[in-house]
Specification:
The complex is a heterodimer.
Chain A (H helix, E strand, L loop, with lengths): L2 E12 L2 E12 L3 E5 L6 H8 L7 E6 L5 H6 L1 E4 L11 H12 L6 H7 L15 H13 L5 E5 L7 H16 L3 E6 L2 H7 L2 E6 L2 E7 H5 L4 E6 L2 H9 L4 E7 L2 E6 L5 H10 L4 E7 L3 H11 L1
Parallel strand pairs in A: 3-7, 3-8, 5-6, 6-7
Antiparallel strand pairs in A: 1-2, 1-4, 8-9, 10-12, 10-13, 11-12
Helix pairs in contact in A: 4-5
Chain B lengths: L1 H11 L3 H19 L1 H10 L19 H10 L3 H17 L2 H8 L3 H34 L5 H4 L4 H23 L3 H25 L16 H6 L8 H4 L8 H24 L4
Helix pairs in contact in B: 1-7, 2-5, 2-7, 4-7, 4-9, 5-7, 5-9, 5-10, 7-9, 9-13
Chain lengths: 297, 275
């Protein structure tokens, strides 16, 4: 697999604030790479540096194994934080500028607007758009030149739940086309649902890097509840493959081992005369891992 | 170059404010360039005369003097063109579209070239209007005709173009330095039409500075050096003899300023983080 982006020892200092410290990353073709971190952890600064709008204090980066930055940027669709367009122009007029800069055909504008669901509003001025529509337009601008690489900075920021679901669907579709996506987010859930690889930044320092599936591991946590919680707890304690039972908001969480699964647990409880009214297998979430990583370092 | 100009063209093409401001500027330029004879008629109706001479026979629209006269007057309006430049630069900063343009794949040099070609275009439009209005007015009022008169002293049109170009580049620099367009507009207007001329006058004419080292300073100031490109033409109708060349010193000093402006713009564009 070819390297899309290599970052070597990249650092940025704004006055007294060290925004990014000695960052090393390699992103390969086809990855959906999540840069994860709390607000102010240096995600946007990092993206700004690799897009040439923030000058690094030290360090280098290289696109497409050595292509010049300006021509590389024409092959990258990027959104940085908020959507930036001329408010007095319509979606089509704004995208014409993008098409001109990226040297792609203006014929791409309509299909791209259709892809993000803005076709009906294409001749309305940008200033009349809702936040969700603005966000979609910036995704349209990023997709316009059909770039092999997309950079998305908090792509679902400010969207309603339906919009969030649609954008995630869109990202999945784009990733399925074999494109490389670099995404910054503070939403762990988002990275978990969308990304194949991720790194964790805190105060500009990379704490962790790896594949999402490696860290998520196997499901071994289950939530259960019944009308009589205390007898349920007593029953479960007797099961040899159940441990770490804890009470949480009216249900119990427990961990299972030795290949015990949820259906076996259910029939075990039923045999003991308890009918479960809740049985949820919990996927180990990135959130827990994330908090663990933050705690460890 | 054409690519860079087209980038700016796409930005202003659908921008109503730009077209309104440009139309108002052109209207003002036409009034100034065509209004000379009406103004002299007005003076005459009020009983004014110049040493017993009827003002309307002053040959202000004679070739080739017409070029110096109209470019001198038109130059006062350059501050209106600078407003258009200030708004254009300011938009790209407040809408963060400069950053988006760079992210999308232009270099900062291309941004600079696109704005400079825009400024050059505005100056060209203005120069062209004065050229056409000069041809019209001259053909109506001039006492001499013939190509050797009509196309003599065309260098004033070139100086006029250069005057606007350098001044609008200053406006470009100021709008990068100060991101509030209203503030830049007020500052550049007051400085150009008031602060620097008054300071220059004090240094040259006041008894404290007159004939001292200080009275040499004003010719080096940014606005003064531009104004020196096209000298005040009208005293010629009284004193007969007047400078009707473009002083080399003014060209040299204003070019020095242009280099300073461009260097500063390049420095700021390269140095500044676009957040």
């Amino acid at each position: 697999m070819t390297n899309i982006l290599e970052i070597n020892g990249l650092s940025k200092r704004f006055g007294k604030v060290q925004a990014v410290t000695d960052l090393n990353l390699t992103i390969k073709s086809g990855q959906v790479y999540g840069i994860l971190g709390p607000n102010g952890s240096g995600k946007t600064t990092t993206l700004g540096m690799i897009l040439d709008v923030v000058a690094p204090t030290s360090g280098q980066y290289q696109w497409f194994e050595g292509e010049s930055n300006i021509s590389a940027r024409k092959r990258i669709g990027a959104i940085l934080e908020t959507p930036c367009f001329y408010p007095y122009m319509t979606a089509v007029q704004n995208l014409r500028i993008t098409a001109h800069i990226k040297q792609c055909s203006p014929d791409r504008i309509e299909p791209t607007l259709k892809q993000v669901g803005l076709l009906e509003r294409k001749d309305h001025k940008f200033k009349t758009y809702s936040l969700g529509m603005k966000q979609r337009l910036s995704i349209a601008a990023a997709l316009l030149a059909d770039p092999p690489v997309l950079i998305l900075d908090e792509p679902t920021n400010g969207l309603d739940p339906q919009g969030i679901a649609e954008i995630r669907q869109l990202i999945h579709e784009i990733a399925a086309d074999g494109k490389t996506i670099i995404m910054a987010s503070h939403l762990l859930d988002e990275v978990q649902k969308v990304c194949t690889h991720f790194c964790v930044l805190r105060q500009g320092v990379k704490l962790h890097e790896g594949a999402v599936e490696d860290i998520l591991g196997e499901t071994n946590e289950i939530e259960v509840s019944a009308n009589d919680l205390s007898s349920l707890e007593k029953t479960l304690k007797n099961h040899p493959d159940v441990e770490n039972i804890e009470t949480e908001h009216g249900y119990l969480t427990l961990q299972i081992k030795n290949d015990l699964n949820a259906s076996q647990l259910n029939s075990y409880c039923f045999d003991q005369g308890i009918t479960l009214k809740r049985l949820v297998t919990r996927t180990q979430s990135l959130e827990q891992e994330f908090l663990k990583i933050l705690k460890e370092k | 170059m054409i690519r860079a100009f087209k980038l700016e063209w796409l930005k202003i093409r659908n921008y109503r404010t730009f077209w309104v401001l440009l139309s108002m500027y052109i209207l003002a330029l036409i009034i100034i360039s065509f209004g000379g004879m009406f103004f002299l008629e007005y003076l005459k109706s009020k009983g004014a005369d110049f040493e017993g001479i009827d003002p309307t026979i002053l040959p202000i629209y004679d070739f080739p003097d017409i070029w110096q006269n109209t470019t001198y007057l038109g130059s006062f309006l350059k501050v209106l063109l600078a407003f258009i430049v200030i708004i254009s630069i300011n938009n790209d900063q407040i809408y963060n579209t400069l950053r988006q343009n760079v992210v999308d794949g232009i270099s900062k040099k291309e941004f600079l070239v696109s704005k400079l070609s825009f400024i050059a275009g505005l100056a060209l439009i203005s120069t062209f209007i004065l050229f056409i209005s000069g041809l019209i007015n001259g053909s109506i009022y001039s006492h001499v005709h013939g190509a050797e008169y009509v196309f003599d002293e065309m260098e004033f049109l070139a100086a006029y173009w250069y005057d606007i170009f350098v001044f609008c580049t200053l406006a470009f620099l100021l709008s990068l330095l100060i991101k509030k367009s209203g503030f830049v507009i007020i500052a550049i207007t007051l400085y150009t039409l008031m602060f620097e001329p008054i300071a220059g006058l004090i240094l040259i004419e006041s008894p404290w500075f007159k004939d001292t080292f200080w009275s040499n300073i004003p010719q080096f100031l940014p606005i003064h050096s531009l104004n020196d490109l096209i000298n005040v033409p009208f005293p010629k109708y009284i004193f007969r003899e007047i400078e009707d060349n473009i002083p080399l010193s003014a060209i040299a000093i204003s070019t020095g300023w242009l280099i300073i402006y461009l260097t500063s713009i390049v420095f700021i564009l390269n140095k500044r983080d676009l957040k």
